Description:
heterodimer; A: 204 residues; mainly alpha; Methane Monooxygenase Hydroxylase, Chain G, domain 1; 2 domains; three-stranded antiparallel sheet; 9 helices; 3 strands; elongated; B: 192 residues; Ribosomal Protein L9, domain 1; GINS_A (chain A); nucleus (chain A); DNA replication complex GINS protein PSF3 (chain A); DNA replication (chain A); GINS_Psf3 (chain A)
Amino acid sequence: MKLNPSYEPNYFSLEDICATNSAVPCRVEMMIPNLGEMDRGSHSEHLETGRRLELPLWMAFNLVKRHLVKADCSKAYSQSAREILKAEPAVVDLMKQEPFYYESGVHVASLLEPEEANDLRKVLQNTFQTRSKDVISLSQAELSKEVIVREQLLSKEEKTLMLESRVKWAEVEHWLSGKLTSRELAAVSVSNYLKRKRPRDDAE
Amino acid sequence: MFGVKAFELIRDLTLTGPEALPLYNSETVRQVLEEMRVLYERNQRDVNNSVNEDSSYLGTVHLRHAALERNKRCLLAYLVNRLQRIRDLRWDFGSVLPGDVAGSLCEQEVQWLQNYNRHLATYMRGLDGLDLTQEHCPPKSLCLEVRCLQDYGLFELEDGEQVLLKKDSIHLLPRSECLMLIRQGVLEHIPH
């Protein structure tokens, strides 16, 4: 019943809404009247020129476009973070830095000066290319402590890919082993529901 | 900060897996709508000011407008994603959702589900009563060997014969009649 979601994030995409919620440091270029309450550090009634504050990406898009603020790289995408990714992409904990590291990164790049944006885009691409090999090998590996530790370094995008890939490998194996009749299973939602429900029933 | 409440709704949905349906959060939806009303009224005032006198308020108007658009996107995404999950649950559980799942729906969603059920039934009647919710792939055999996972009671087959579905009993049943029970977790298929 599920249609394959396209890659292009649509208006209702929960992932894209989450990715556009991460904060970027911004500098106010032009005074924005009446909205002083957004800047916790100042007592002014207005957002004064030169103030620095963190804005969510979705707000920064609009304000940068109108030259009201200037956006900077957040810590996860800063020069030093990029150097680390260039040197050793595989061991960085992307999940901790930014759950949707690649999605948010592409959005951040759209706010930066062309030169820096290109550098960031290139780093994101290389990082993903290198790490995707890890994602595949993780999806084939037997579950062990080490695998679980390495799984936690994956960003949400990588994790989704890995889980999907794990299911597919199992299906390929099932097919290769020559079992023709596929097994009819309870729907995922139903079995999850029953799992949640059973312990409670016992407790009553 | 604007848009924080609206994002709470989205987080509600992402915290559970895509198969589960969290309780409809009417209180937060109300708060988001209230935030949007305030944003709209303040923007109206500032727009009137800028039309008459100076244009220095334009930045404020744009910022509030971005917040309005964001809140709108979160609210709509919340509702649409919930409807998609309700629709998927309908295909998994059958036309009647179990009590506590049905309890997470709001009144309008219950209404929507009733309409959806009616349209689906009408469409399937038009196909000579073919049950679309059952066969997703071509069947490999007419009968399935199944083990019963719970005490379900008497189950009447289409030819009038009755089967007692007791926990841990094993039956060979016509595929078309036991498929729904497998999806609902009453029976378990024993593959050969």
